[in-house]
Amino acid sequence: MAKTVADVMTSDPITVKPETPLKDAIQILAEKRFSGLPVVDEAGKLVGVLSETDLMWQETGVEPPPYITLLDSVIYLKNPAKYNQELHKALGQTVQEVMTAEKIVTIAPDQPLREAAQLMHDRQIRRLPVVIAAGNLVGILTRGDIVREMASHYS
Q1: Closest among 149, 151, 150 to 6, alpha carbons compared
Q2: Where do the domains of the chain lie?
Q3: What are the helix (H) ranges across the chain?
Q4: Can you give the pLDDT at residue 54?
Q5: Is residue 13 classed as helix, strand or coil in its secondary structure?
Q6: Burial call 69-87: b when 16+ CB within 10 Å, e when fewer
Q7: How confident is the model over 52-84, as pLDDT tens digits?
Q8: In Å, what is the CA distance from 119 to each residue of 34, 100, 142?
Q9: C-alpha angle 139/141/142, rounded to 5°?
Q10: Residue 45, helix vs strand vs coil
């Protein structure tokens, strides 16, 4: 019988809240050697993901978008809204200010593990939050979980 996401995922994963100080979340990532953390609200609903990529802005900073001046008008050559978003991440002090909240890829616990692996491969993601229909987080599936499941077939 084919394995499902629920068979392999980590149940009750370590999470942070949007209001968690960023320094605390960074400490968890470093101590646990995680590459990301799910962010949940008080009800346990997934509201975002904090990843190493989100944190890179803290260290690297951001470059202002290039622009030209024409007839006393400033014309941006790149999207200034994206610059504002990157600047917010670079200066953020809480998880909510730095996390990714839109376009979060999730999966249901009853989905085939094969489908989850394909999704992670296609989207090049390291972790897949597992949510039930109401949006509540029930687990996390990582690439490592899938590799450990594969290795169990050789023992």
Answers
A1: 149
A2: 5-152
A3: 5-8, 22-32, 52-60, 80-91, 95-98, 113-123, 143-152
A4: 80
A5: coil
A6: eeeeeeeeeeeeeeeeebe
A7: 888 876 565 556 556 567 677 766 556 666 655
A8: 20, 18, 12
A9: 140
A10: strand
Length of the chain: 155
Is pTM beyond 0.70? Reply is yes
pLDDT digits over 126-151, tens only?
A: 999 999 998 999 999 999 999 999 99
**pLDDT digits over 18-56, tens only?**
999 989 999 999 999 999 999 999 999 999 999 988 887
CB 42 within 8 A of CB 18: no
Task: List the CATH code of the domain at 5-152.
Answer: 3.10.580.10
Q: For residues 22 and 90, is the Cβ–Cβ distance under 8 A?
A: no
Yes or no: say if 112 and 36 are a contact pair by the CB < 8 Å rule. Answer: no
